[in-house]
Amino acid sequence: MTEIILKDDIEQRKIDALLNFLKSWDIDAEIKSTRPVIGEKSKEFSLSKGIWSDYDIEARELRHKAWKK
Hints:
Elements: H1 12-24, H2 47-52, H3 59-66
């Protein structure tokens, strides 16, 4: 699989033209949007929350233990 990432907002007519061009060369292509749909809340993931979710510990305590000399 090869991916092409388009980073700017692109008009729908330009996306359609790009898809038509690729399909004219018998290239199977599809569009997947990574933007959240309007009204959909983006889910923010914090690795630190996942690691320490089962422990009763605070960031301040971790810093204190890590930098204790």
